[in-house]
What we know:
Elements: H1 3-6, E1 10-21, E2 24-36, H2 52-59, E3 67-72, E4 75-76, H3 82-91, H4 108-118, H5 125-142
Antiparallel strand pairs: 1-2, 1-3, 3-4
Helix pairs in contact: 4-5
Amino acid sequence: xxxxxxxxxxxxxxxxxxxxxxxxxxxxxxxxxxxxxxxxxxxxxxxxxxxxxxxxxxxxxxxxxxxxxxxxxxxxxxxxxxxxxxxxxxxxxxxxxxxxxxxxxxxxxxxxxxxxxxxxxxxxxxxxxxxxxxxxxxxxxxx
Length: 143
């Protein structure tokens, strides 16, 4: 196995996250470690309130850890600033939310295409629309 194939695609190292609720410090994540390799499927299990969604938000760049690192392809997700985090979320991460978050007036395909539209300029979109639609169809097929 080559070195590149052995490297994790996504890592979490010593992740900590806490929130202040009702005057109390609620420490949700305490030193979480995780490695995921390309084409690997993982399940995050735990009781309600155990930090599963918080962990996914950190891995997906939706929230910043209080301590620790998230890396994607050996690059720190949060080190380069907001523009790079936004690009990471738009191009590398996909979320399928359990409840709301989908626009009911759109088809499933249109809901998936929204991310590609947001990541493209108005001038570029007509030239990339066909490829984006094909990719969205493939992603829905995998789900």
